[in-house]
C-alpha cells in the first residue's frame, strides 16, 4: 500500500466512517506524524493493533457524527478533507473545527495556548475574509453584478487597511 | 539583482565564520505567516494567490527591507532548481503552481517565500552558531511586514498556519551541523534518538525525506505552541553545545586512535577532488565532507572552509548547468563537476606531516 500523500510505503492505515460510508486512509509514518496521526512514542513491543485501535478511538470515534459532517462556511473545506489532507483551508477553521483540532494540537505540541509574540490587532480582516468568500460564491453562481459590488467593497476597504 | 548575478556570489551563510563554525555550518530561523483575509494557499484561487502576492509586494516596497522579488511562476525549471540548491526556496515552492515567488536579500541571508504551504515563509540564515542574532533579524523583518499586512492570528492559538503542526509561533529554529566524527564513530543514531526524545527533529541537508549527505544534519524544534520564541531558541542553545562536544570527542578519538588512517582518508579525498576527470554528486559530497573535517583538524591548510562550504552548493546539478549556460545530462555533469572542482582547488598542496 502506498502513502496517499507521498510515494512512500504506507505504514499507518485507518478506517474512518463518514456519514455511514467507510473511508480508508493510508499514510507513511512521516506523513501520519505530520497530520497528527503518527504512532505515539511508545515501547516498540506494544502490539501494533492495539496502537491503531487506540488511535481510532482517540481520533475517529469522537468524530463520527456532527464533526464529520462539519464544513467551514468561509472556505468550504470539510473537516474530513482536512483529516485526509492534513492542511486546513482558512484561518477560521481553527475556530470552526476547534473541538476536533484541539486534541490533535495538544498531542503534537503538548500545549494548546500560545505564549509567544503577539500580533497587531486587525479586527477588519475577518470581515474581509467573509467578503472574499461571498465573492467566490457570487462568481461560482455567475452573479456578476453581486461580484462587482463585493469587489468594490473590498477595494474600498483596501484604502483604509 | 538577477539570478545570473547569484552564480558569481555565494550566500553569506557559507562564509564559514561565526562561533563554532567548524561544526555549525549555519543558524537558520523560519517563520510561517498567513494573511488573515485569504484562505490558505491550498484553498486560494489563482486570482487570490495573485492578490496575496501583490499585497506582499506592496508591503515589501513600503518597508525599509532591501530585497529583490523573483516571480517563481515564470522562472525556467533550471532556475527554480538553482534556488532550491542554494537553500533559498523549498522544492515544494519550485514544484508548485500559480502565482508564487521569493524575495531575497543581497547576501542571501533573508528569503521570503510567497504562496508556499503558508502565504509567507520568512527565513533568515547566518553562518556559525548565532541563533539570537538570527532571531533579532527575522523578528525585525516580521515587524516591518506587519506594518502593512494583517496576519492571521488569534490570542489563544497565536499565528494560524495551514498545518496545525506550525500553529502558535510559526517558528522553526534550526542549526545545520557537520558531523563526520559521529557518523564515522557510528554513534550518530544514539545522538539523534536522544534529540528526538526531547522533541527535536533531525533532517538531512536537503530537508525532509531526503538522505543526509556530506554528513550535514539540521536539528530543529518540532513544537511551535506553548513556548515563546526565546524559549524555543533556548532549547537549541542548550542542547547544541552538547552535540558539539560529542562531535569534538569523536574527532579527537579519530585523531588519537586512528591518526594514520584518518590522514590517509583526508589526503585521498583531497587528491581525488583535485584530479578527478569525472565525478558523481554523491562521491563529491562524501569527499568534501572528509576534506572539511581535515581542514578543521589541521591536516589540510591550503584551502579555506568557505571554499569547501561553497563547493557543497556549487557542485550541484543546476549550478553547474547555469555556469555552463546549457543543460547537461548526467555524464556531462560529472565531467563539468570534476572540471569545476579542479579549477577551484588548483595549486593546493598537502600540509606537511606534523
Ligand atoms: Zn507519506
Ligand atoms: Zn475555512
Task: Sum up the structure in keywords.
heterodimer; A: 161 residues; mainly alpha; 3 domains; two-stranded antiparallel ribbon; 50% helix; B: 354 residues; alpha+beta; Creatine Kinase, Chain A, domain 2; Four Helix Bundle (Hemerythrin (Met), subunit A); 8-stranded antiparallel β-sheet; 13 helices; 46% helix; binds zinc ion
Molecular structure report:
Chain A: One of its GO terms (molecular function) is zinc ion binding. Chain A: InterPro entries: UVR_dom, YacH. The complex is a heterodimer of chains A (161) and B (354). The relative contact order of chain A is 0.09. By secondary structure, chain A is mainly alpha-helical. Chain A has a two-stranded antiparallel ribbon. Chain A has helices at 29-34, 48-60, 66-69, 79-85, 93-96, 98-109, 124-140, 144-160; strands at residues 12-18, 21-27. Chain A has 3 domains: 1-40, no CATH class; 48-109, no CATH class; 125-159. Chain B has 354 residues and is an alpha+beta fold. Among the domains of chain B are: 1-13 and 27-168, Glutamine synthetase/guanido kinase, catalytic domain (Creatine Kinase, Chain A, domain 2); 258-347, Up-down Bundle (Four Helix Bundle (Hemerythrin (Met), subunit A)). Chain B has 13 helices and 10 strands. In chain B, helix 9 crosses helix 10, helix 10 packs antiparallel against helix 11 (305-314) and helix 12 packs across helix 13. The termini of chain B are far apart. One zinc ion binds at residues 72, 74-75, 77, 89-90, 92-93 of chain A.
